[in-house]
Amino acid sequence: MSPDASLGSDTKIWHLAQIRESAVLGRECIVGRGAYIGAGVRIGNRCKIQNYALVYEPAVLEDGVFVGPAVVFTNDTHPRAVTPDGAAKTTADWDAVGVTVREGASIGARSVCVAPVTVGRWALVAAGAVVVDDVPDFALVAGVPARRIGWVGRAGVRLRQDGDGWLCPQTGDRYRESGGTLVEVAE
Which of 23, 115, 145, 167 could form a disulfide with 162 if both were Cys (CB 3.0 to 4.6 A apart)? Predict the structure, then answer.
């Protein structure tokens, strides 16, 4: 771990994980074995980054985000090792773009999020998906490229249609769909 990284209280880093300079991790996070957290990455409180996940800068993860094993967040829209004239590329030749993951979202094992994309609040990206477009709040996306196949609630359970809205079978929470987005219904 870089001495320039910042870790919140009760954050745990497992063997062989690499935390780069200026990375900021909140309280009560867990970073699994062999995970990579890039320079300047910002991670909120109570996040779980599983084994061998690669979180390249300038990614931003809000509170309560789950990143599954071997997930990759890219950061370069035009990846090349060399410039058009054959010279080795340097940081001066690169415009980093990041992945943003909003509060409570989960990214399934071996998924790839191709920057720049935003995964919405409490969304769920299925294992092995390739995310190339923004994911709405509460969306369940799967496939290559990832497409919305349903909705999930805060518990991560697939919602079922109930009258003119959606219901979480685990919590009983209700949601309303409007124009391709889902919002929680206050009781």
Answer: 167
